[in-house]
Every structure is written in structure tokens, then in C-alpha cells.
Specification:
alpha+beta; MetI-like fold; 16 helices; 12 strands; globular
Amino acid sequence: MTDTAESSLAATAAAKPPFYRDATVVKWIVQVVTLIAVILAMIFLVGEAGDNLKAKGINTGFDFLNVNPDFSIGDGIDNAPDTGGRALWVGMVNTIRLSVAGIALATILGVLIGISRLSSNWIVAKVASAFIEYMRNIPLLVHIFLLFFTLGQLGDFGRNVDPVTGELSQGPINGWVHVSNKGLSIPRVHIADGFYQWMIFILAGAIVGRWLMNKRNAVRDATGHETYPVLNFVGVIASFGFIGWFLHPIFGWVGDAIFGPLSRAIPNVPEVALQLILSGLAVMGAALWIKRFLDNRRTPAGLAQLTDDDWFRMIFAGVSAVLASLVFLVIWPGLASWIINSSRDFFEVAADKFGDGRGNWREDWPIDAARPDIEKRGNFANVGPGGLNFSQGFAALFFGVVLYTSAFIAEIVRGGILAVPKGQTEAAQAIGLRRSTMLRRIILPQAFRVSLPPLGNQYLNLTKNTSLAIAVGYSDVVQVGQTIFNQTGRSLEVFMIWMLFYLACSLTISVVVNFFNVRLKIVER
């Protein structure tokens, strides 16, 4: 009787439940049904919105992107855009400039302030604490307005005259730093005609330096002796850069020999062929990713059991490849034409940059510098093209978001440093390391493992906070978009462009932060 009961229990345990009671099957069915319901709901809402707009006589569409907006933009790569799409692109570039430069500067300031708050120097620690509390507890918009109106109350630009030369002057340091109601001007470093030829030497140096660094790393691992691989890498690049500084004109032929023929050959590529190539690459990329994913799940005993998340990843990769193919072949067949035209334009620009006549042996250095200057147009003085010029709105917005975000980054860095085990610090002190070396080699690398995810959130916040540019009249993508939909009435379309742009920025930042987060994680044996 006991044997029968045990065999019955074993058979019951081994029996597979019906599919409608299988937790995995039910989970997938619920997710798929929910996804379909969400998609159908979105289609219904979009259709209803379109019908209501048509009933009210409101036209929809993106044709305004090809129409002259008939307004100028104060800051940006194009002050008089000829289409609405070009105007929005100028605003996007301005936003990207603010975000990239702001993230870099806010990170540097935040790290320094976070370290200062933990300083043993009482004054330094209290000043850092006061800065953090002041910036964090006052709204960002108030900071921006304060900076904007402070700059606006400064003296008129170019109102002083140098007593020696009789030329217009501007303080606080004439010819170096100009601060006035027109904004801020500082010296700038810019690329010159020989820069692109010089970059060939830099690229070659990076390749050789990387090879040498790998060799030095191998020697260090084999012998245990310090071989300074990073120093060798930097030294090789510096050597190639120094040689290329004088010899870069020898690559003036690259434009006519390589990029010129490419710019003429690209338009001959059939659009259908490019569509098929792009679709094939999408499918091939998904297949290779799935193969590599399965290879990573293999063990000496065979393929490990796949979880629901593993199946979801593989299905998502396959569906993404199919959707990409549909985009290339059906949904947006004109994408191939756009890629061909953009590639032609790119190679034409590259041919011009590398073309003959650029890079004079004695006159054209790869990198040049310029100091801020003053131009008098009519009866009014204006900033000249020489320096790096920050308009009043740009300066207020840029320094506002940088200082505000740096306060939050400082607290994150402080928390990351405190999360490092105290024994690490004591061990570093025991072997006589200086505090700067201890921070650089031991504490900060471990602190950034903890700090990087919340730092990514601050980078996202900084990027989205640049939309406050509209409050001070700076031409970011929001301000330009508002001007466009005020003229055209296409507010829904402009809002969609805003959403897609900020979504792309957020996803890009997340991908970069996650990449470094994976690289910094502790690898367990």
C-alpha cells in the first residue's frame, strides 16, 4: 500500500499540468493579450483624435517641416533656417550642446564638491555643505532667473575705451574675459584646416598605442613588474600627434583619392538594393545576437534551462529584426534614399575637409585659438566672432542647470565614498598612500560602482531641465517648436517631435550609463 501511494505521488508530481494552468503559459498569454489591448487602444485613440480634428477643420500632418518658417534664431548653427525641419534641428543641436557640456561640467563640479564635503578642513567642508543646501533647496527656475537678471543688470557692452590704443574695451579682463549684458565671452580653441589630416596621425597613434598597451599589460601579468601601459599608450599618441603637427599636409590627397570618388559613387547605389541590404543586416544581427546569447547559456552538461526572461529577450530580438525589415521595405521605403543622399553629402564634406590646398606647412596648424573681440556695427558695439560667446540666455541656463545638478551629484558622490568599506581607506593609509592617490586609485573607482546608476538619473534630469530655456528666450528645441506651432497651429505634431527627441536623448544617456555600469561591476569568479 505504501509503495502504491509513493508511486502515485511520484506520478502526480511528474505529470505536466494542462496549459491553461501552466504558470509560464498563463504569464505569456496575459502579457501578449495586454500588449495587443494596449496597441488596439492606441490605434482607437489615434483614430478618434484624427476624426475629431477633421470634424473641426483642423489639418494635421508634417508638411510644415518643408515650409519656410519665416523667423530667425538668435543662437545656433543656422540663424535663418529655410524650413521648419531645419529650425527644429537647430533647436535640437542647441539642446544637445547644453546637455553634453552641462553633463561634463556638472560631473566635474559635483565630484569636487562631494569630496570637499568630506574634507577634514572645516572651512572647505562647510562651504561645500552650504553650496549644496542652497542649490538643492531653491527651484532651478529661480536660479536661472537670478543669473539671467544679474547679467542683464551689468553694464553695456563695449562702452569703455582703451586709453592707450583708443579701441573699445570690455572687462573684467579685456581681450580675455568679457562679461556684460550681452553675456559672456572667453577664449576658445577651435579646429583649423589641417585638423582632419592631423587626426590621421592621431588615429594611427591610437592603434599603435593600443597594441603596445596590450603588450605591456601582458608583460606585467607575466612578470609582476610595473610596465606603465597607460603611460605608454598616451606617450605613443603624443608622439604621433607631435610628428603629425608638422607633417599633416602630406595627407591632403585623401580627399580627392578616397572621399571624392565615394561621394560620386554613392548616388549610383540602387535604393532597392540598399533596402535589401539593411533588412538583411537587421535579420543577421538578430540571428547572431540570439546565437551568442544561447552560447553564453551553454554549460559542459549542455544548454542550461532558459528562463522566461531569456525567451523574452530572444523573441524581442527576432521581432525587432522583423520590424526593422518592415520599416526599410514597407513603412518607410524613402529611408534608403535619405541614407544615400546623406552619405553623399557626408563624403562631399569629408572630401572638402581633406582636399588639396588645406594644411599649409607653415601657416595652417591643426588647432588654433582665438580671443574674444569687439565689433562695432553702426553705433552699437557687439561681440565679435573671435571668442567663445555665451549669450545672456545661454549663460543663465547653462550655469543654472550645471550648478543645480552639481549639488545633487555631489551628494551622490559623497554617499558613494561613504559606501566604500572603511578598511579600504585604512589599508591605503597603512601603506603610506597620499590622499590624492588614495582617492584616485582606491576610493573613487569603488565609489563610482555605487554612484553610477543615480548619476545617470541626474544626467537625464539635466537634459530634460534644458527645456526651461524658453523662460529666458534661448533657442532650444522647445522654444523653437513653440514658435513653429504658434505660426502653423500644428501643436500636436510639434509635441510628438518633442517627445521623440527627448525619448531618444534619454535612451542614449541610459545606454551609455549602463555600458559603463557593466564595465565597472565586480567580476566574480
